Amino acid sequence: MSKTMKTNKMTLETEGETHVIVTRRFAASPEMVYRAHTEPKLIQQWLLGPEGWVMPVCINEARPGGIFRYEWTKADGSQGFHITGEILEMEPGHRIVHVERMHMPDALPDTRIETRFDAAGEGTLMTMRMTLPDAQTRAMMLATGMERGMEASYARLEGLI
Amino acid sequence: MTQPAISQHLKVLEEAGLISQRVEGTKRPRRLETAGIEAMDEWLVRLRKSLEKSYARLDEVLAAMGTPKKEKGR
């Protein structure tokens, strides 16, 4: 029935201990989806996660060797965090490789992310491959995130159920 | 498996936060710690929900950017 819904459905799979692979189809060309991932004015409109967050600071130098910095705050100003990263590789309209880390406010370990934009039918198949830190570092990182974000994430989870 | 090998395996599991041990006289009962596993699951659930929300917004952003003029016939 709802074919569009099904086509746009996201998949998220883990591969081994340290990889997370996300795929999503978009009804736009790879060039456009790529632009939406590299132009700050566009990024600020959608990379916002759960309801209620805004991104007042969005810097992306969009070149190999360039840096980016995204700052999020709750719309009511009650919470905030930011991500910094470096762009390693860019193939315009096709592929981005970068490393990033979350600051809460202490920096958590680096995650490496490769994002591909492939033409698929009339649209784009986006594949994001995340390489997380090793299991032990990740356990630490999760424990830290859990302690600090416990209340917020529980509230968020309750909202989802 | 030898006792030292078992102890070594248990030590690895304990360091990874997957089991914990208590001391009861001469016994060292271990229990499975599900918090480490649940933390990862919870993180993945949060990641999924967060990305789904973001990509739903991205659909709208892309629609607003407008489709490039199609020169190709149908």
Fold topology:
The complex is a heterodimer of chains A (161) and B (74).
Chain A: H1 3-7, E1 11-15, E2 19-26, H2 30-38, H3 40-46, E3 53-60, E4 67-74, E5 80-91, E6 95-103, E7 111-120, E8 123-131, H4 135-160
Antiparallel strand pairs in A: 1-2, 2-8, 3-4, 4-5, 5-6, 6-7, 7-8
Helix pairs in contact in A: 2-3
Chain B: H1 3-15, E1 19-21, E2 30-32, H2 35-65
Antiparallel strand pairs in B: 1-2
Can you tag this structure with a few keywords?
heterodimer, A: 161 residues, alpha+beta, Alpha-D-Glucose-1,6-Bisphosphate, Chain A, domain 4, eight-stranded antiparallel β-sheet, 4 helices, B: two-stranded antiparallel ribbon, 8% strand, rod-shaped
Q: Tell me roughly what share of residues is in helical segments of chain A.
A: 25-40%
Number of strand elements of chain B = 2
Q: What percentage of residues of chain B falls in helices of 4 or more residues? A: 55-70%
Main sheet properties of chain A: 8 strands, antiparallel
Average pLDDT over all residues of chain B: 80
Could you tell me the strand content of chain B as a percent range? 5-15%
Query: Which band does the percent of strand residues of chain A land in?
Result: 35-45%
User: How widely separated are the two ends of chain A?
Assistant: 25 Å
Structural class of chain B: mainly alpha
What radius of gyration of chain A results from the CA coordinates?
Answer: 16 Å
Q: Count the helices of chain B. How many? A: 2
Q: List how many beta strands of chain A DSSP finds.
A: 8
The major pleated sheet of chain B works out as: 2 strands, antiparallel
User: What does the radius of gyration of chain B come to?
Assistant: 26 Å
Shape of chain A: globular
Description:
The complex is a heterodimer of chains A (161) and B (74). Chain A has four helices and eight strands, in the order αββααββββββα. Chain A is α+β, with helices and mostly antiparallel strands. Chain A has one domain: Alpha-D-Glucose-1,6-Bisphosphate, Chain A, domain 4, CATH 3.30.530. In chain A, strands 1-2-8-7-6-5-4-3 form an eight-stranded antiparallel β-sheet. In chain A, helix 2 (30-38) crosses helix 3. The longest helix of chain A is centred in the C-terminal third of the chain and has 26 residues, at 135-160. Chain A is globular, with a radius of gyration of 16 Å. The two termini of chain A are 25 Å apart. Chain B has 74 residues and is mainly alpha-helical. Chain B has one domain. Helix content of chain B is 59%, strand content 8%. Chain B has helices spanning 3-15, 35-65; strands at 19-21, 30-32. A two-stranded antiparallel sheet of chain B has the order 1-2. In chain B, a hairpin with an 8-residue loop joins strand 1 and strand 2. Chain B is rod-shaped. The model of chain B has no long low-confidence stretch (mean pLDDT 80). Chain A binds chain B through residues 8, 10, 12, 14, 20, 22, 24, 26-29, 32-33, 35-36, 42, 45-51, 135-136, 138-139, 142-143, 145-146, 153, 156-157, 160, and chain B through 15-17, 36, 39-40, 42-55, 57-63, 65, 67-68.
